[in-house]
């Protein structure tokens, strides 16, 4: 064409080619970065469910460790708060665990321990009158415990659960003293000295019904130091 040099024509063709190459170069430079970021995002998405699952497992284990309660062979765990049906069809709001462990549901259940150990009850210097009207003084020592059957444990729980051992001792002592006065009041002073074991057997028999209603049994009983006053 007139007035147009070959150099101008070449430059007009070379401009678009250089721009295309520069654009291609820009695309090629940013593509690896975007691919890396995409893989990084995918790895995060995969890692988040695993992290959430691990966190949930840790929380579950912590709750299990906190809620799992154990008792020794001489103890009973009474868990209350949820109703359950007994084999005979009766519905109760508690369950018993003897010498083992169980999971106590937080906020829904409450666990309390009842001891099955032998308790020594002392009634010293008890003043009574014999069948002959003689004033005497005697000491009584008895060993009692909660019986191991379910009915006795339930009865004992109704009377003693949540109370201290001292409260239990005071209640049993007052009951023994009542029956001891009755037994010694029907005995002579000579009988108390010559056959204290017989008087103790009478006391144990007389107190068995009242103590049994509270889930207790008398393991041994002794009347000692009988003195005339």
Task: Note down, in words, how this protein is organized.
It is built from 5 helices and 8 strands. With 229 residues, it is α+β, with helices and mostly antiparallel strands. The protein has a 3-stranded antiparallel β-sheet with strand order 3-2-5. Strands 6-7-8 form a 3-stranded antiparallel β-sheet. Helix 3 (165-185) crosses helix 5 (196-213). The radius of gyration is 43 Å and the shape is elongated. Residues 1-28 have low confidence and may be disordered.
Features of the shown structure:
disordered N terminus, three-stranded antiparallel sheet, 229 residues, SH3 type barrels
What is this entry, summarized?
By secondary structure, the protein is of the alpha+beta class.
């Amino acid at each position: 064409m007139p007035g147009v040099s070959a150099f101008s024509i070449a430059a007009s063709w070379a401009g678009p080619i250089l721009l295309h190459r520069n654009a291609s170069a820009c695309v090629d430079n940013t593509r690896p970065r975007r691919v890396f970021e995409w893989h990084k995002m995918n790895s995060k998405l995969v890692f988040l469910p695993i992290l959430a699952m691990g966190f949930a497992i840790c929380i579950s284990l912590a709750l299990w460790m906190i809620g799992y309660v154990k008792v020794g062979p001489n103890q009973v765990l009474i868990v209350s708060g949820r109703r359950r049906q007994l084999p005979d069809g009766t519905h109760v709001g508690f369950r018993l665990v003897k010498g083992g462990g169980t999971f106590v549901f937080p906020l829904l259940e409450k666990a309390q321990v009842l001891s099955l150990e032998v308790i020594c009850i002392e009634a010293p210097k008890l003043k009574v009158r014999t069948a002959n009207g003689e004033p005497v003084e005697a000491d009584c020592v008895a060993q009692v415990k909660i019986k191991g059957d379910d009915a006795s444990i339930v009865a004992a729980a109704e009377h003693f659960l949540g109370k201290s051992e001292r409260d239990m001792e005071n209640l049993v002592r007052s009951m023994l003293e009542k029956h001891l006065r009755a037994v010694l009041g029907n005995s002579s002073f000579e009988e108390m000295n010559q056959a204290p074991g017989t008087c103790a057997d009478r006391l144990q028999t007389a107190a068995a019904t009242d103590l049994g209603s509270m889930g207790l049994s008398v393991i041994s009983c002794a009347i000692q130091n009988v003195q005339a006053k």
